[in-house]
Design brief:
EC 4.-.-.-; binds the ligand Nc1nc2c(c(=O)[nH]1)N=C([C@H](O)[C@H](O)COP(=O)(O)OP(=O)(O)OP(=O)(O)O)CN2; lyase; 129 residues; 6-carboxy-5,6,7,8-tetrahydropterin synthase; 3 helices; metal ion binding; binds zinc ion; 18% helix
Amino acid sequence: MPKWKLVTEFSFSSAHYIKDYDGPCGRMHGHNYTVKMEATASELHTSEYCPHPVMVADFRTLRWAKRDVTKGGLDHCILNEVMPPEYETTAEMIAKYIYDKTKKILPTGVKLKVSVSETPNSWAEYEDD
Ligand SMILES: Nc1nc2c(c(=O)[nH]1)N=C([C@H](O)[C@H](O)COP(=O)(O)OP(=O)(O)OP(=O)(O)O)CN2
Ligand SMILES: [Zn+2]
């Protein structure tokens, strides 16, 4: 089936610690997180900002997490205070948190994959088939 694939990448800077981690990652420290989002669909949709069905998903919608925390994003915050307690602040669970929140605001039928990196050397990816 024909389909479109969007890829968008952005970054945000925040602090975190991993609860009960035996090592430096258990102390508060910061990262310049890089997030890559891939959205796939075989139909185009309207968006919050555009009334015409011309997009898989609006890049502005996909990129919500780069906004300042006071505007609903994850930039310049303490992730442990902003993310619900069922999500630990590992790259794995930040990816799932961004995935879960984004899925709720995307049109049905859009398949999503979220990758999160804390450092240039390590990535975590999350998708749900
Ligand atoms: N599977 C995971 N392992 C670790 C995570 C994680 O999110 N998922 N996170 C951490 C810590 O947050 C830590 O800040 C990152 O540790 P590390 O990769 O060792 O960071 P470095 O700055 O030392 O990275 P280098 O690029 O290797 O210098 C730990 N583990
Ligand atoms: Zn860290």
